[in-house]
Amino acid sequence: MTVSSAPPRVVAVVVAYNRRDLLLEVLEALSAQETPLAKVVVVDNASDDDSAAVALAHGELVDLVRLERNTGGAGGFAAGMAVALDEHAPDWLWLMDDDTVPTPSALRHLLAAVDGSDYVIAGSRVVWTDGTDHPMNTPRQNPFAGGAERRAAAERGGLAIRSTSFVSMLVRADVVRAIGLPIADYFIWNDDFEYSTRALRGRRGLHVPASVVVHKTKVLGASDADPGPRFYYEVRNKLWMLRRSASLSPFEKAVYGASSVRRWLRTFVRSSDRAVLRDGWRRGYRDGTRTRPRPNHMSLAGLGRASAAIERLEPDS
């Protein structure tokens, strides 16, 4: 991307569901960014608290997209990104959950790191409330990056990555238009892994430790912590990704597939309720091998202007 004299136009996309107090904190933090945002698209995933009212109280900065049903994180990001691209003409999209509180300089550091480069994704350092790195949102460094790419990333104060999290992901808008949206049917789990690896296949991404956000989860835990019934989504979506997605090369699928099996075994060994995990594995394996995710225009049909924006962005899906 060439250097421009005009500052890039950044639109944040925040997916919200029943966490009005945290959403308020997130929106206040976005309003206080040292680099002003053009707009914040808040997707209210059919909350039954007053998250929508909290969003509307922030005035013209916020564009509230109300969904009539809970579409999960994956569907919420797909809907919000589609509306942002369709209505707000961004150069970059900044994606985050409603429990992600960016520090005032977070966006400034992300933009500085990618300025004048061909990086298409930049991710923040994610910490927990005590300031320690959050193991749930550790980026995957690119094991296939050559020495020149690693040095180039280091010169910008970062690390070359192969994937990153929706907990503060800055992604170039023209790349989103080229590759499409997150897959809504993933609902939760592995949607950001699939999407970031799809965006970064043949392109470059950067982890930017100077950009810091606080991920205010209830507990500090990694992705292989005991997930309970949600283990179904981990298994189904990972199988969908390995079997259906073009986000990884065949060799990468073998490497990451083996890593997933090891993680599943570790999760099972540590679990306090293995019967729930066995059920999640059985159902996840069945659906991951016998079904495939629907196109977004089907899974996100009937949601007003979000559905219309998706159909315009992904007309051939």
From TrEMBL:
Domain Glycosyltransferase 2-like: 13-167
Top-level taxon of the source organism: Bacteria
Pathway, per record: Cell wall biogenesis; cell wall polysaccharide biosynthesis
EC number: 2.4.-.-
First-tier enzyme category under EC: transferase
Keywords from the named record: Glycosyltransferase, Transferase
InterPro entries the record matches: Glyco_trans_2-like (IPR001173), Nucleotide-diphossugar_trans (IPR029044)
Keyword check for Heme: no
Record's keyword annotation contains Lyase: no
GO molecular function terms attached to this record: glycosyltransferase activity
PANTHER family found in the cross-reference section: GALACTOFURANOSYLTRANSFERASE GLFT2, RHAMNOSYLTRANSFERASE WBBL
Membership in a protein family: Belongs to the glycosyltransferase 2 family.
UniProt protein name: Glycosyltransferase
